[in-house]
Design goal:
This protein has about 180 residues and is α+β, with helices and mostly antiparallel strands. The chain has a single domain, classed as Peptide deformylase (Peptide Deformylase), CATH 3.90.45. The protein is about 25% helix and about 30% strand. Bound molecules: nickel (II) ion (NI). Nickel (II) ion binds next to helix 2.
Length: about 180
C-alpha cells in the first residue's frame, strides 16, 4: 500500500464528475487500499477518488471503525434535515456548517462487486452525503452562505500557499504531528 497525494481546492479534478465503475479489478482494489491508508494517515473519516486525482466513482468511509467502500453510490432515500460542521481533507483548516439530510439510505457496489444498501444516521449520513457530493464535483463550501463562503475563501487564500500545485503530500512527520479534527471528510 502507499500514501497518495491529496488534491486540494483549486485542482480542477475536484469539480469533475466521476465515471461509473464497471467492474472491480485488482487495480481498483489496490486504489481502495491506498485510499483507506491515505484517509487514515490524514485522520479523515471519508475520502473520494477525485481527492486523490482519480475519476472512478468510488469513495471510502470509516466513521466508527467500520470501513465502508462505496462504488457507484446513490442516495435512494433521504429524510429530515440537520445542520452540522464539516471540513474536508481537500480544504484543510476550513470548516463550516452544512445542512444535510438527517438520514439516508445509500445503494452501492462493494469491493466484492456485489450491490448492497446501507442506512446512515448522524455522522455516517453526513459523511456519505459529503463523499457522494465529491463524486459529482460538489464541495461542502458550496452550501455555505455567501458571507461565510467569502470568509472561508479569504482564509483559504492564505492556507493554499502551503500546497504548491494544489497537492497535499502527507509525510510521516506530518502524519505523526497532525493536529486533527474528527470531522474531516
Ligand atoms: Ni471532502
Amino acid at each position: 500500500m502507499s500514501l497518495l497525494d491529496i488534491r486540494v481546492l483549486g485542482d480542477p479534478v475536484l469539480v469533475q464528475t466521476t465515471k461509473l465503475v464497471d467492474d472491480v479489478t485488482p487495480e481498483l482494489r489496490r486504489l481502495v487500499d491506498d485510499m483507506f491508508e491515505t484517509m487514515y494517515a490524514a485522520k479523515g473519516i471519508g475520502l473520494a477518488a477525485p481527492q486523490v486525482g482519480r475519476l472512478e466513482r468510488l469513495s471510502v468511509v470509516d466513521v466508527d471503525k467500520q470501513p465502508i467502500v462505496l462504488i457507484n453510490p446513490e442516495i435512494i432515500e433521504s429524510e429530515g434535515t440537520i445542520k452540522g460542521e464539516e471540513g474536508c481533507l481537500s480544504i484543510p483548516e476550513i470548516y463550516g456548517d452544512v445542512e444535510r439530510a438527517a438520514r439516508v439510505v445509500v445503494r452501492a457496489m462493494g469491493v466484492d462487486g456485489k450491490p448492497f444498501e446501507i442506512e446512515g444516521r448522524e455522522l455516517l449520513s453526513r459523511c456519505m452525503q459529503h463523499e457522494i457530493d465529491h463524486l459529482h464535483g460538489r464541495l461542502f463550501i458550496y452550501y455555505l452562505s455567501a458571507l461565510k463562503r467569502r470568509a472561508a475563501m479569504s482564509k483559504w487564500s492564505k492556507e493554499k500557499e502551503k500546497y504548491p500545485g494544489n497537492v497535499r503530500r502527507l509525510t510521516a512527520d506530518e502524519v505523526a504531528a497532525h493536529h486533527h479534527r474528527d470531522e474531516e471528510l
